[in-house]
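Forwarding these from the shared drive since the link keeps breaking.
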Amino acid sequence: MKALTLSDTRILRYTVDAIKIAFQFFFKLVLASNLSTGANLGSLFGSYIENTTNNTNELNLAPCSYFIAVENKYYNAECGFLSVPENRNKIGSPLIEIPITKILSESPSDLEPVFWFQGGPGSKNNFNYPVDGLISNHDFVLVGYRGAEGSSLLECPELRDTLSKSKKPFLSEVSLNSYSLSTEACAKRLTSEGFDIEGVSLNQTVEDFEYARNALGYKKINLYGNSFGTRLQMIYQWRFPQKVNRSIMVGVNPPGRFVWSQQDTQDLILQYSSLCNESPFCRARTSNLVSTMWAVSKNIPDSWMGISIDSDLINLVTFMGLMESASTPNGSLSLSAPSVLDMWLDASEGDFSAMAFVSLIAPFIIADMHQWGHSIAMGASSLDYNQTERDYKDEFLPKNTIIGAPFSQLFHSLSLGWSTNSGAAAGSNAAIKSDVETLLISGQLDGATPMRYARDELLPMLSNGHHVILQGQGHTETFWNSQTNARSTLLNSFFSSGLVDDTLYQDQIIEFDISFGFGEVAVFLLIALFVLCGVMILVITKLYLKCQKRSFRN
């Protein structure tokens, strides 16, 4: 028998294959343990309902418990299902069921209940943030999002599979067309299975909230939400102003702003460049962050240690990170501006391990970040991607910007495959005047819902509007995970009396020093896998030699 031989080339190839498998497995663990993107990936251990009751023709609530994981606390609640028409625009439309949860006020109070609107789209209307004392004096109501929960779910495994297996480059014309075709296939399959996808729209979701308010017997309600949820809030208070007491919107998304501008992102990078100059740690790594990122963008290699690097995925993840100015406290590997900028600075120093790691895991992040059927249906029911006079493809191509508009490119391709425009109406294209007392809360460094749109497009339409801009803060996760006393004071004072008390807020300091970023994870796994491969080779060699000795004896 021949002696066992393994060439260096084969060892490297086997090692790289093992690294890829391990990275993919590691990503799934990270996602399950609360990998945060700021754009609402959700958590495996998020809020959930116990002991709900299913009633088909009316709203009958039964006692239940509602668990808020970030507080590790159960709240007394009442849960049930509300029957609503699948499509109110069609006579005789069948009924679907959406879950209703009423978390009970902890003390008797005449204050109006708070109706929550979660961000997304593409997620359930759960609440897993600090309650900040609101439940002490208010009922807190969660109305399920049609298409994302309840009896009618718009799942798109076709698209999820295509996204997770997409070939480089991720945003090439071929790739974008494949996403459109997968979305189209999903819509056709859902329709053939009996789903009326035109019924999943912004307006009909808002009508579910009004149906729930009436069924619960509330005369007036408070509206409270973040990100995508603020769009639903706007439509509700435009359509049913007499039913609204006050409204608080965090990370405000006015009409038209499901489309992300590449210039807004470039301007945000410029702001971070200035902040970098104020940080001794960041300033020691680069004298000009913008110039450094420009130089890196022109010289990204095709691979690192045999792992392919896709600049489209780097840009997508960079945009996702720029949504938030700080990592979440419990995030094992949180996406934030400091973490993605650290990746670019590593690359400027010749270390592309973080970019390789991100290129490997990003398809899984993107494939699992939304319930895509619901997400696309919500977008298709607005006019954001349905304005025929706009050349979206040309608009989204990078033009003198470092990362362009990668999310807009992706979402536009998805909208092309979902041909229905289901009920674009109230407030779909421009803000409408409102007299409702409204508090807008924006982070100065919010990359998902830039604060200038709340200030310039929505605030002028609010006769009783207020706008608080939080310095150094990003999108919603930054808001929920910092300055607890200041946040609680701001929220409770406005809902109870209409007073805007932001006096406890201090400027948020940006921490550029990332102790365990993407690059550190990549190198750690690489070393571990080299050791593992070495051990495996030794074991295989030992077994072979043992078998060889036996063969000689025979």
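-- next protein --
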Amino acid sequence: MFILLIPLNAYAETIYPSFEQRVYDPPSYCFVAPSDISEIKKSTIEKWEMEVEEAVYDWKTKLQNGVPSEFKYLWNLSYLGSDTEPLPDCDYPIYLKPYPDNNDNWYESLGIFSAYYDIIHVYFLNILFEWVEKSQTELYGVPYYDGDSLRTFSEIGGTARHEIGHSFGLDHYSTDDDDVRTKWSKLNVIPSIMITGLGTDKNFRQITDIDISKVRAIYGSGGFYAFSTTPIPQPTTPIPQPTTPIPQPILPIIPIFPFENIGISSDEIIVDRYSTQYLKVFGNISENVLLIGHPVFLKITYPDLTEELLRITIGSRSGGQFETTMSFDHYDLLGTYIISATYLEHTDKSMDVKFKIISKDTHSKSNSQIINKQPSSLTNDDYDGDGIIDNIDSCPYDTETFNGYQDTDGCPDKLSDKLPNSLQTLNVDSSIVGLSITANAIEGSDTFEIIGSTTDINNIVTLVVKSPTGNLINVDQSSPDKNGNFILDVAVEGGLWFQDGAYTVTAQQGNDSMFVDSVEIEIADGVVVPEFGTIAAMILAVAIISIIAISSKSRLNIVPRY
């Protein structure tokens, strides 16, 4: 995947935001044992419970560490015990499950905290990767739950600590610098329990001072009573008379919801071997929280549970709008991606968006299909299901395109594969094969029109607009009609069109140069100027002819104005 940011971040940054979750009293936790899996030994379940109990007390001990004894009660956590159902008065039951109940949520493969239901799930089946061959030289891994192996006890303990952190309102600790993340992976202990994608073993993933400081910052001097509807209880032991001035109380961090909306151009991206597909991510910051110059961070969670952090600077002319474009091709990992947005150290989980990457050419098993399957179940005599058995299929993981051209080799093909050698066979005039576009608009308009034609009516046309300095402004797509014609309207609006000059519009189908064409559009002060396009040229020509005609008949002198 290739990601274009407007504008690009100039330096690395690490963030540790909170989200809207808060506890309203010292929280209690309990262990909910799996009751319907006879294959799991009782001793194993007991060990899982010990790991969960240890995770609760680990948080409690470290939060109370260094706090005067008379105020330790403000940071109390309690563990109530275990059963096959949540115990009474248990605020946050911790369930041990083999895998998610909903296969669409496969990406939550290690564990999940649900703020809506106030529950934690920790999944105990080990995760393996099925290496699927996309071509003779390409492999990609699809995670699945292995029904024959369990995660280690230490991994269960590390995941429990992470999910308990979410129950306090902690979001993930992230960086936009790949080098920094690589350094984290080489440490004996990573900087935060809330980092994802770098293993879950509790010996490597521990609650650190960074985590304790963040929890204390969220709740302030009131501890876990900060958001309680009842007054904070007074300490049970007398408070000694202070010998130094009493510090000002630390106020808690009130959750804010910084975004009016966040959207994506599509919730499903279909990739193939011949073209690049684009996804636009856009949103608006609420006017009452907007601070110019503070960036928006987009966290992209990949299907393999790794993350990438993208930084977008909010300019003075943006009006709180932000936008970026991601591009995908057949090299990218298939599956579900999640985008979370953070602003001013606040993440609004209700604004999370998801999309799926699906292959057009490969018929590899989806994540929901391969959960609890062994790798051997994916090997068949005709893996891609195109009717050409694997031992004679040149592309055993790519489906044949049956179009009268090399239909027995088992590989997909497109129009340009047939050119130029088979032009006479296909009775195609090579002079008209390809794609072309023109731009039309009226002077002073804030929209313009791209009119095009193509001889490839089966593939989507992708339109890319770039600024005079080469920044990506807009991406759109259109499907040609049965005659190969297409029209796209482009609006000149938003903070990305602030530059005056020639904007380049490129239309493209796949990677064949015959199916690529570009035009330039002059923009000044956010509107179209008449130096391009058929309509604009006609208007300009008519205006010039009219002036000449009037001048000739009336013998008017055209005096230049300075």
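Residues 259-361+381-424 form a domain with the Immunoglobulin-like fold (CATH 2.60.40.1930). Residues 244 and 321 are 49 Å apart (CA to CA).

- D.
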